[in-house]
Amino acid sequence: MGTSHGRRARLRLRTLIRWLWYFETTPVSPDEILLRRIPNNKSYCYRDRATSALVVDPYAFTPNRKRDTDGMSFYRENFATPEEVALDYPPDGGARVARVAVQLVIDLGLGKIVTDPHDDQERPAGHVYIPALRYVDRKTLSREERQARDRISLALAQHATDNGVCSHPGLSDPV
Amino acid sequence: MVANVWPQYTVVQKQESAVSVGPRDQRHRYLNLVTWTRTEPVYECNPAQEVSTDIITLKTWVERRTDIAKIRTLAVNWDGDDSVPPTYGVWSRAQIFLNILHERKPGNPPKKIAVSPDGLIALEWFDSNAFVRAEIGDTEQVEWMFATPGFPAEFRTETVAELKTPPEQGHVWEPAMVDEPACASEL
User: Fold this and answer.
1) In this complex, do A65 and B83 lie within 8 Å of one another by their Cβ atoms?
2) What count of Cα atoms within 13 Å lies in the side-chain half-sphere of residue A110?
């Protein structure tokens, strides 16, 4: 059910206390988890042969020139499930979902997270973006700026790998 | 499955009993104590295993060449997220770079080749403790990233043209006299 505040959070243990006043437009709190959809492609995610674990590549957290013009897109786990996020405009090869703690975003000094609920009620609730990670042509960046961005992508990817990648059952390994 | 594996043990017979001796220090102790009646040769390495490893390395190089060839066929929206494919120039430099790496470091092929959403190509090496990436873009430069858990990532740059220059004869193993070490040689 939508309101001027957007949709309400999912009712779960983590949201129980604040659920009545917890909408999509409610500012993101440091204890939240963000979900990012990753195309099921070897450039973004791969299976480590040694450990058999799925590893997130830093390119999964590199801004896309068409999709991340305002900032890098995420969904709030308190509003959308990984399944819903994976099925939001899935690429041909399917998609996986990486999890990132908001606290890491704060620790990396990425500034504010902007709430941006979709008007389309069919799409997952809890859409947000991080303006500090908007797409910028690398040619316009200095070497230091490029390296700073690469460090952030790497940190987010390592963190997402440690948290485990959510996958739809039956999804084949990335190719 | 390897049918014949070289023996890992030495069998030392003293009178009637046989004693299996494994580690080197124990072996030395036995050399002083045991009255030798018969010995069998000791092989420290397993040649069959070495051949197998080499085959895996060769196979990995073939896979990386196939990966590079496939990248040339990518079109716009190759990942379903409207990403652009690498230009011919980027792809060509990546191919040259892979060939140079094969010549310089045949025992250490990249574990993966990735394409960025904005059309860069990266050659990547990784294990549980480290991540190394060589990124090829619109310029002649190769940007290296070395990441180890617990430490800030380090970056270095070198050009494909520099790498193409063959080492002078007689100085193959001498380090290059440059401000920054040749990153390919650090792998």
Assistant:
1) yes
2) 26
Contact B124/B131 with Cβ under 8 angstroms? yes
| Phi and psi based region of residue A109 (left: phi greater than 0; alpha: psi -120 to 50; beta: remaining) | left
Give the pLDDT of chain A (175 residues) as one tens digit per residue: 455 788 888 888 888 888 888 989 999 999 999 999 999 999 999 988 788 889 999 999 999 988 899 999 999 999 999 999 999 888 888 899 999 999 999 999 998 999 999 999 889 999 999 999 999 998 899 999 999 999 999 999 999 999 999 998 888 888 7
Structure tokens at A86: 């994976």
Residue A158, both tokens: 């390592």
Q: What end-to-end distance do the CA atoms of chain A give, in Å?
A: 39
What is the number of CB-based contacts under 8 A between chain A and chain B? 78
SS3 state at A162? helix
Instruction: Please answer yes or no on whether A59 and B115 come within 8 Å at the CB atom.
Output: yes
Q: What is the pTM of this model?
A: 0.77
Interchain CB distance below 8 Å, A62 and B116: yes
Q: What are the DSSP calls for B98-153, one per residue?
A: HHHHHHH-TT---SEEEE-TTS-EEEEEE-SS-EEEEEE-SSSEEEEEEE-TTS--
Distance in angstroms (rounded) separating the CA atoms of residues A159 and A35: 12
Q: Helix, strand or coil for residue B62? A: helix
Residues 6+ apart with CB under 8 A from B28: none
Give the strands of the sheet with A114-115, arranged side by side. A95-101, A33-39, A72-76, A127-130, A114-115
Q: How far is A21 from chain B (nearest CA, A)?
A: 34
- Rounded to a whole number of angstroms, the distance from the CA of A20 to the nearest CA of chain B is 35
ipTM of the complex: 0.87
